[in-house]
Amino acid sequence: MLVAMNQSSDSQQLRACLEHTAPFSASAPATLERLVERSSLRSIAAGEPAFVEGDPSLWVFVVLRGSLAATARAEDGRDVSLRTLSVGDLGGLTALDATATRSASLRAIEDATLAIVEKRAVREALESDSSFATALVAYLGEHIRSKTRQIATAVARVGRDPREQIAFFDAKPYERAAFERRLSDGLRARWIEAKLDASSAAMADGYPVVCAFVNDTLDATVIERIAAGGTCMIALRCAGYNNVDLAAAERHGIDVARVPAYSPHAVAEHAVALLLTLTRKTHRAYARVREGNFSLHGLVGFDLHGRTAGVIGLGKIGRCAAELLRGFGMRVLASDPTPDDAFDARVGVERCSVDALLERSDVVTLHAPLTPDTWHLLDARRFALMKRGAVLINTSRGGLVDTRALIDALKSQHLGAAGLDVYEEESEYFFRDRSDKVITDDVLARLMTFNNVLVTSHQAFLTEDALDNIAETTVANVREWLDGRRGEALTHRVARAPSGG
Ligand code: NAI
Questions:
Q1: pTM (2 d.p.)
Q2: Is a pLDDT exceeding 70 seen at residue 5?
Q3: For position 87, which CATH number holds?
């Protein structure tokens, strides 16, 4: 049913819609007004067709409400599902000539409203408004790139199990079991042992979804390569996304989703495990007793009770850590740019600057994300501020710490001990068995010579509970995306900060 455009609210709605939809948004004000005048609203009830394949193509449309399914008739007579269109999606712009016919049918999945614009008006705008024409060319270029990717995907999938939609890189047996329980139901993964980087990216050819973990490389080169192979979604099975070039993903129209929280307790508990091991030297006692040495020499520790802990980054994990440390009877200081008076009052946390926290804490635990602002948050200047004999715990990201400055602080015995689940250059070593190889990273090798340094290989997350939560959320993210929820509609989408950071 065409709704006559005699109500000013309709024209306001149409104007707002065109103003926010590329390429119309680039048109001059006079062009936009002419387009609005020759637009109207069209409502389609759930299940009803909006357009039928083969009919004359007279309208360009934008979805204002609801969602619609696009299908095309294949050579063998079957209807093939092409895509789901939801709010903001645009159609009809690729067939602007007067004699064009509809290349696909469109049916409303739920009650929908379209803003439809006369194609003749669009052709006139194209002739008279060069900025609209330029924006239209850019739109068509992106459209062609995205269709090329879809074709590449389809070609690479020929002969493969159609349920295999996910290229799962850096697959480890302990996570595979959790994922296999969740996948079933028509969705499968190709398990790839290699880490994702420029040399392995071709293994994603034909897979719409790439599933990656913390030490996979998703820089601009890899993203360009997987986009060329037909990948349109990156499903991170982790919280941090500092290894993803989000600007490159955006350029190639790749959606990125993550698992924002899977078990903050797992990570906070590991931080405490590292802390207690170091303060009570149980790592040394374990080795000593196995050798038949029951001496206590060198095993004197210190009580946590009554001492001061500093938590840098009071987000999901930092809060769990703060509560655990309060449980030991510690005074807890915290540094985080986001205040939360209610949490501080409930748990008994005192806020202060990073420098003040370092000066006052016997134990410092890092839970801030790695960003350009937090890179080498702990450098030589800040190690010098720390209390003599303090213990540093890092379960967040290796890049938060300048490791050479850390080694200097340990050598001078200014720092009492360090528990590290992460290391800036960990990707060459962590998660793999390198026991038959020589460690060529001198910084890592030096770190491991200290008897007051405990290194674990990024295992803070590794509990049954966390693995199950990771699999559940990652698979839900992928299913959402495969069901047509794209871009901002994705629940756990990772978007580039407006600053580009
Ligand atoms: P979150 O986003 O809930 O919390 C991070 C907090 O850090 C936020 O409150 C933020 O305001 C704060 N922050 C940002 N910049 C800061 C700065 N300059 N100084 C102080 N605070 C700052 O993140 P969540 O879930 O607590 O995770 C924290 C980090 O832990 C993640 O970014 C990730 O890198 C790491 N992680 C490590 C794991 C492991 O297995 N070792 C597993 C999961 C996460």
A1: 0.69
A2: no
A3: 2.60.120.10
